[in-house]
Amino acid sequence: MDDEKMKFCVDTNKNNSWYIGTNDYDSKMINKFETVMFQGNGYMGMRAAAEEKQLHEQRDMFVSGTFDAFPNEVTELPNLPDLMNMEIQIDRQNLSLKDGQVANYHKYLNMKNGELTRTFDWFINDKRISFKYRRFISMQNKHLFVSQVEITSVDDELNIAISSGIDGRQSNDESQHLMEGDKRLYEGQYIQMQAETQQSHIDFVFNVRHKLYIDEVLLGAKPYINMNRRQIFGNYDVDLQAGQTLTVIKYANVYTSIDQDVPKDTLAVDSVAALKRASLCNYNELLQKSERVWNKDIWQKNYVQIESEDEKPQVAINFARYQLATNTPNDPRMNIGAKGITGEGYKGHTFWDTEIFMLPYYIFTMPDVAKNLLTYRYLGLQGAHKKAQGNNYQGAQFPWEAADPTDGETAPLWGSADIVTGKPMKIWSGFIEQHVTSDIVIAIMDYLNATGDQDFAENMGYEIILDAAKFWSSRLEYDQERDVYEINDVIGPDEYKEHVDNNAFTNYTAQWCIQRAIKVYNLIKEENPELYLKLSNKLNLETTYEAWINQVNRIYIPQPNIEGIIPEDDQYLARKQLDVTKFQVNDQVSTIFKSYNLTQINEMQITKQADVLLLIYLFENMFDDDIKQSNWNYYEPKTTHDSSLSQSIHSILASDLGLADEAYKFYEMSCETDLGVHVGKAIRGLHMAACGGLWNMTVEGFGGVRMDNGKLRIEPHLPASWQSLKYQINWQGSVVRVGIADEKMIVQVIGDGIEFVSHGQEYQVPANAKIEIEVPVEETVMD
Fold it and tell me: Which residues bind substrate (predicted)?
């Protein structure tokens, strides 16, 4: 398999796998590059739009957790005032790359430190001006954004006029969430705008200060201030001689009333004081502070090193880890949106994407972050109870889409137009896609197995498991004739199948969830009577436990037929078959909806993403190899892979089945989900689950790391085009470093000794030691 098959929209660098960039100014790709070169720190995020306004741009900036809603609409993250803006005039001519002549254009992101750089020469009125823009969002100070532009007059004197400040005229698809508050200037230098969300009443304070230098000499000029509706700008006028460079540093920060590091009633004053302190440092000094946090808190904890014939695999895994770091809030009241904070897609809402596709990365590399993400679900029990009660169920029915954890369900009711009827299609996921409740329990058990975090288990984890099982118990429907409990009228992971009965994934995981709850019940009753009494009173466990025991072994579990095929649901195998080859296009556009509507697709054997195969991936010990292979052979050709969640599961499962070519094909497809040449859905933001999936394919698939009945298993499947793979994980409090090359695997432990399994044999690595073992040849070569 040739790595060169991967086609990226950005240029890469063989000598620097942290680099993505472009030398082309292509107006058609503006939104794509804005998304791919996104900057953030988990608290706030900003698309990589240019400082000057451009046609078709999307100038989005978000702060995590600041949800707001309009009447009869679901809550969403508000698009915040623009802080990156900087309008420049050269001799009264507005800087615009569509005018004049542009040469030496280069825009690139350094993913190792999050710095975005843009350089070009602009020729206007027979004058050549050199521009160099740099900017970053600080990892050291979560509120801080810093940008710098250097403008050099190459061969003539210039007059430069700059207008820069805070522009509150931003919206979410033309909806304005912010009510304008006070605007003012502090000490002749610090520009401030205050605002408040309309429904959630979250206060914002935005501050900006500029420093101007000519050839490193600080200018003392104070700005002339313009205040317009939702705008406040500082204006500067500078004359530049030939050969001189004007440097403008823009310091900006954002604070909100839900922040926990500044008192709400002193936000305005404290935020200005914070910007004063930050602006005592120059751009490079602040960047270095941010870089130290990147290195210490992120890169040292989760390194992955791929030696291959091409740099793209390493670039892709660096990109995935960078985007996860910049989009994951370090606050348990918040979670990762399906598109992070990279765009308006999915309104900043959290899905099961976190638990199944992103959490494995955090469980194995930064367990403290994984704990925060699971704590969010504990804080969401109130909303889960609200949803369950609204549907006449008991326990915790977690929302399909979640925003503020206490809100409950936030999924929209209507989607795009039906190709046949022309009417908006109803979105049923918020009503009947219920497996998310089991997905959360799966993630909790994985976290507990990998970390042994008993404190989390007793304070939060066990309660979620018991409460989720209580929901499933109330959700089961008894079929008296067959003496079984069913789960009818659901959507499984395959969202092309609505209103189905007994979806295999849903039924299997519901039963598994109740089985876990029974074990937790018996464990705490025997070993922690105080906790048992607390949770029993809270959840009425005595009565609930009796129901579990009565139901658990009579839940209907779809079994493999004579060909070994597990029915995706009661209706699937009887539906009409269709060749879906022409719809398996990796451009992030659901082309099948150009030919059929969802009602028609619902009546065909067409699958959107891994469903039965996801079940086999997550619960591999339930199925023998023949069953796994039979279901792969049956379902993969029927899958369009329209969801970015699909490729990683198929790749890992293909590795398990020894289908090396297939495993790498889906790996390449996943790498191209956001980095590929297609524009696709990039204007709406990145696919965060695909980022998590890239790590999963690399470390779990090719690196062979899995949790097997609570034990660590390492069985690599290295692609033929990779010479070696090295990665680091955490296991039970110890750091485990794995290196795979030349049919050998070295496992090194930093911390307490560990045990792991490889190809049926158990190995022990003593504390602060390493061992070397042989890797079977068939596991390291590609078919």
Answer: 352-353, 608-609
